[in-house]
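Let us work through a complete example step by step.
Step 1: write down the sequence.
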Amino acid sequence: MKKVLSLLLGALMLVTIFAGCGNTSNTETTTEGTTMAPVDQYKPDSTLRILMVGNSFCYYYVEELYELLIENPPEGIEAVEVYNLYHSGCTMNQHYNWWTQGTANYDLFKVDANGRVNLNNIHEKWSLEDALNWAQWDYISMHGAMPVAVIQPENRLTVRDDLAAKAEPLFDRFHELHPHAQLLWQRTWFFEVGYKGKITYTAEDGVGYNEGIQLVGDYITEELDKDKPYDVIQVNTGAAWTEARKLNETLNLLPYGGLCAMLARNSFGDGRFGAGDGLHDGDIGGGQLLNAYVWYMTITGNTDLSACKYAPVYKYVTLDYPLSAELIDMLKTAAMNTFKK
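Step 2: predict the structure and record it as tokens.
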């Protein structure tokens, strides 16, 4: 089914969070004294809360997403909190197995007006159920590392069916605990051609990988939820990366591939020496902002980024480097082109 993102704005005030965390007779105590309102006691407030369950591909852009949402918030929203339930390289199999076994292997990070905070002072490690019970969520997203086998057409249906079998009970559980929340599936991007990790990838591998993960994403968001009382929407950051790479080949705004990574002008933006690893940056810089644009449009339903003036300034060691106006315009165009298709 074709998802109509503009409907999210109208539903937003119905999915905001129950105000107040004090113990009363109308709340249920969960972890570490935190309370969660029963469904029949649900009351909206003016804070938008997003829980992203995944790995590094849903970690390195939440500050930018926060800034975009605060700059042009949905109607009635005064504060934003974005949470990452994070484990490096986590796969769907790991998410599913840890959930069924009640395993606490995640870190939980919160991004709000105070920046990014690690909440491991509350739990040394978090389980999925810990995070689900932490608050009443407006949006819950899921992402797991994609098997390399998806590159080959003959393997794609097997990969798709296996991932869907793991995702379905997880989405069911998300909806059971948070029936007001919008559920999301994030489709990511192919890493850099020639990536010197365990495998060296070719340009043909990139095409195959993108086709395979698009097939998976389409199936999960168009077929898996057909007989469900909820809707799953795709956050298609991967398609936006493909658009940005095509535009960059024409506009030549950025050094390509490995050179871009060596300059550390990558999607991390955290100043770590050599942080450009070919995985998270790929062959365009400004990846954090590009991802944030796609998330912003998906959540708000606003597919016109002309009002977004936010321009991040990143650090490399002790030096500041802003994204150029030309690069920001290209990233906006790439993100908006994705929503036109």
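Step 3: interpret the result. The CA atoms of residues 1 and 222 lie 5 Å apart.
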